[in-house]
Amino acid sequence: MEVQDRTELCFPHLPNISCRSKMYSWSGAVYLAILLSSISSFTVALNLLVIISVSHFRQLHTPTNILLLSLAVSDFLVGIMVMPGAIVLHTSCWLFGDLMCSLYNYTAFIVICSSVGDMVLISIDRYVAICDPLHYTTKITVNRVKLCVCLCWLFSALLSIVFTKNNLIQPGKYNSCHGECVIVIDNISGVVDLVLSFIIPVSLIIILYMRVFVVAVSQARAMRSHVAAVTLQVSLTITSKKSELKAARTLGILVVVYLLCFCPYYCLSLVGSKTLFSYLFELFLGMLFYFNSCMNPVIYAMFYPWFRKAIKLIVTLQILQPGSSDANIL
Fold it and tell me: What is the enclosing helix (H) or strand (E) of 328?
């Protein structure tokens, strides 16, 4: 894909202060816009199905699913707000003004931070479910999870102000010309971002899931050693443990995919090189990061039968029938 200078101005009626449109070749810009638009559309549609499923069916109002709902909301906002903005930034000029540029960057930071927080909460949820199953129902309740989700979003909004305060106070402060949307983070904010949005969350996620993996393996061996038991009590216990282990495996895949998509982009953004190769590579990793928001519902569909059943009921409009929220979805 070729990058070339164009002589067209973003604002032809402002020749002295307008940016020049520097973009991909026409065909490259079209391909990129189609690709990002397709990812954005699938992301919005699939995560909307998750939001409707968990919100509508009462059987799905569990602590773990509340966390998945919060993650789906983050992914939905990525698809409906962050991706379209990225399409504009990478294929044409920013035509929506400095204030909208600042608000766009602020919203993007909130969504990313909340997504990281959701992943940490999901890891904690699985850690307690696998490592301390006897106290799971008392420690992890729906109301406590809802409170944690609200605090996660509030913390993300407050933390994002730290990163974008200069842009919010003086929109367009770092733009060299009209038609540009630039955000600059000072050194102190960059360190805070690195520690709170990357090092600490990723470390917690990895440590918790390593512990979950060790305990899950030992529990799987214990279940195999008791497979010959025929009493109802043992049968119910084994079934319950298998369900928890399956949930841990599914959410483990979710976390691994997230880390694979999130870490490379974040690491490259810290380097900050401005060469053509690094720009194209950063664009690719950015698309990979966005694609993760589309992948999460696909993972649900692959491993959660309740999600596939919910999709069928939603698509066939059976959720519009009276009492459909009480349907047996599990």
Answer: none
| φ, ψ (nearest 5 deg) of residue 302 | -75, -35
Q: Which residue has the tokens 């919910």?
A: 310
**Residue-range definition of the domain harbouring residue 171:** 22-326
Q: Is residue 54 part of a domain?
A: yes
Helix, strand and coil content of the chain, in percent to the nearest 5, comes to 80, 5, 20
Q: According to the model, what pLDDT value does residue 54 have? A: 92
Tokens 């971002």 identify what position? 193
Helices (H), 78-199: 83-91, 97-131, 136-139, 142-169, 187-194
Number of domains in the chain: 1
CA-CA-CA-CA torsion for 188, 71, 153, 207, nearest 10 degrees? Answer: -50
CATH of the domain at 262: 1.20.1070.10
Residue 71 in contact with residue 115, Cβ under 8 Å?
A: yes
What is the rounded CA–CA span in Å between residue 105 and residue 89? 12
Q: Can you name the residues that pair with 22 across neighbouring β-strands?
A: 5
Q: Is residue 11 part of a domain?
A: no
Would you say residue 7 lies in a domain? no
pLDDT at 143: 94
Q: What is the pLDDT of residue 28?
A: 66
Phi-psi map region of 273: left, alpha, beta (phi>0 left; psi -120 to 50 alpha): beta
Query: How confident is the model over 236-253, as pLDDT tens digits?
Result: 444 545 555 565 666 677
Name the strand (E) or helix (H) holding 304.
none
Question: Highest mean pLDDT range out of 131-135, 150-154, 177-181, 301-305?
Answer: 150-154
CB atoms closer than 10 angstroms to residue 325: 15
Better pLDDT: 164 or 8: 164
* Mean pLDDT, rounded, of the chain: 79
